[in-house]
Specification:
Elements lengths: L3 E4 L6 E2 L6 H4 L1 H14 L4 H5 L5 H8 L6 H13 L2 E2 L2 H12 L4 E5 L4 H9 L9 E3 H4 L13 H9 L7 E5 L2 H9 L3 E4 L3 H14 L1
Parallel strand pairs: 1-4, 1-6, 4-5, 6-7
Antiparallel strand pairs: 2-3
């Protein structure tokens, strides 16, 4: 029986890039930030997602004579505010599952900005029982340790006395879902918001 549900964030519950509002408001600045972060300093992305690089480090490398670190911080915050979020049907299903006594958490391969900004800005604590972020646990969802366990989920699993088959994952990444399935988790790879809704409906019927 499923006792906890984990749902991916990016391209599953939310849609949009960092500082996405700039794509229309200031295309030149948007292109500058995209180039600077994802091309010129792309070697920082994975370490940032694993907590080895901090948001302050990113702001420093993106800053220039006309763009301060505080302005960059604000652009990130504004971008998170403008993210497109899954529709109310999905959140209603999440609440129904929670009412049956099954916790629902966000599980995201993300940077430290998720916990700092995305989670509180969208008041996600109202809809979820918490989150696990790769930048805070130092591992990606698909990672395995020498014992064949998933470090990303391991602290939560042990703290709540769960077996992997009692855990469910809804995610758009085939690497994450394949890794979850390999240890016995109930996992489904989604491609559309309709897939997310269908997966939640299936879990809800199982409870």
């Amino acid at each position: 029986m499923i006792k906890v549900v984990f749902i991916d964030w990016n391209e599953t519950l939310s849609f949009g890039k960092f500082y996405c509002h700039l794509a229309k408001e200031n295309p030149a600045l948007f292109q500058y930030l995209e180039q600077k972060l994802f091309q010129d300093h792309k070697e920082m992305i994975r370490p940032w997602m694993l907590g080895r690089v901090k948001f302050e480090d990113i702001c420093r490398v993106l800053a220039n004579d006309s763009l301060s670190t505080s302005q960059i911080t604000q652009h990130f915050i504004d971008g998170f505010k403008h993210l497109k979020i899954a529709d109310s049907k999905i959140f209603a299903l999440i609440q129904e599952i929670r009412r049956k006594g099954c916790p629902v958490l966000i599980a995201t391969d993300h940077m430290d900005v998720f916990g700092r900004y995305a989670y509180p800005l969208h008041h996600l604590e109202q809809f979820f029982d918490g989150y696990i972020c790769s930048a805070e646990v130092g591992a990606f969802k698909a990672d395995k340790d020498d014992a064949g366990r998933l470090p990303f989920f391991e602290t939560y699993r042990q703290a709540h006395g769960l077996a992997y088959p009692e855990m469910a994952l809804i995610d758009n990444s085939v690497w994450s879902t394949d890794s979850a399935k390999s240890v016995g988790m109930w996992a489904i790879q989604i491609k559309t918001p309709q897939d997310v809704q269908a997966a939640l409906e299936e879990i809800n019927e199982m409870l």
